[in-house]
Amino acid sequence: MRRPYAFQRAVVVTPIQFEPLSGVAMSPPPAVAAVRPFELACPRLDAERVGNGATPGVWHFDAGLPGRHVLLTALIHGNELCGAWALKDALAAGLRPRRGKLTLAFCNLAAFDRFDPLNYAPARFVDEDMNRVWSADKLTAPDTQERRRARALLPWVEQADWLLDFHSMSNADEPLQLTGTQPRNIELALKLGNPAHLVADAGHAAGVRLRDYGRFGAEGENGTRSLLIECGFHGAPASRTVARDILARFLLEAGTLAADDIPPGWLADAAPRQRALRVTHAVAARSADFRFAQPWQGLERIARAGTVIGWSDGEPVATPYDDCVLIMPSLANLRPGVTVVRLAQPI
Question: Where does the chain cross the membrane (predicted)?
Fold first, then answer.
């Protein structure tokens, strides 16, 4: 009889590691492939993709006064449109820095050009995930579309003091602020007041994210801040609203804009209460044979340790501790090595 398996407990994020638990075996359910409808309109970026300097898709503004250099990035994944809308709206509104510098970057335009609302998953990237290439070994070997584009954007990333990277999710609806593990970023996320859920995570084993590149991933207080905002489901019109709200809050906190610079309707009501969660384990698929026990949407709290949440190659995957919270469960990009769910607990 097959027994369920659980993860070893770890202080830092731990990839899939199993040790046997006692219990009755459970059979995995059949695969269910449900594609949610994409209701968010695709923005026209004919003008925005030109940029206002030497780097296509990059808009840079300098107030001529001392202040932070803030970088806003969208379309790291070509099917995540909320950030592109927020940057397009910011340009249309004429937002300019009162102090310091402001850079807006439409990143993976080649992937965006593949976008099809009826089949949107393939537009995530062209050759590889652009949010796994931000390390020296990959950036110095620009042999993919995403690495070449990352190299073109690198000077802007290295100049920036504060970074806000816009994303959306393939399954979950509730926005998440992914802060990384640095206290300075967690503190900033709490100051912003939205969204309600903050997730302290150490990134991906498959590669370094933009949010964690170079100085942004360094420990201690070095003047940098970097956040990754997941604005909700890819195709939800509300994701655009979330993106504009977080953009406005971030620029206000950075001192880039004043309150009267924010267009009417951009700032949403602050969350009544923010909850911070720390990711302890990351479940990566061993193969394309991964199934969830239920159609998890994310942020479910699993009361008991040892509860089976899915199956990897037919082996049950169980929660490693009581009150385990599921973060961003998704099979949309299922292949070996891809993180399918993260496990977290309150900070």
Answer: none
Cβ count within 10 A of residue 132: 18
Share of the chain above pLDDT 90, in %: 84
| Residue 301 CB coordination number (10 Å) | 13
**Omega before residue 195 within 30° of 0, cis:** yes
- Block residue for tokens 């584009």: 149
175: which 2 tokens?
């926005």
Phi first, then psi, for residue 187 (nearest 5°) are -60, -45
Residues 6+ apart with CB under 8 A from 79: 111, 112, 115, 120, 121, 122, 123, 124, 234
Residue owning tokens 């503190």: 187
Q: Which amino acid is residue 282, in one-letter code?
A: A
CA distance 310 to 336: 16
pLDDT digits (tens, 9 = 90+) for 191-204: 999 999 999 998 77
φ, ψ of residue 299 to 5 degrees: the values are: 75, 10
d(CA 16, CA 124): 24
C-alpha 237/C-alpha 319 separation (Å) is 33
Phi and psi torsions of 98, nearest 5°: -75, -35
Read off the pLDDT of residues 110-169 as tens digits, 9 standing for 90 and up: 999 999 999 999 999 999 999 999 999 999 987 999 999 999 999 999 999 999 999 999
Do residues 344 and 280 touch, judged by C-beta distance below 8 A?
A: yes
> Token digits for 239?
């994701």
Domains of the chain: 5-30+277-346 (no CATH), 48-261 (3.40.630.10)
How far is Cα 66 from Cα 274, in angstroms, rounded to an integer?
32
Closest to 214 measured CA to CA, from 71, 55, 4: 71
Take residue 225 and report the two structure tokens written for it: 């801040």
Q: Name the DSSP class of 41.
A: P
pLDDT tens column, 259-281: 999 999 999 999 999 999 999 99
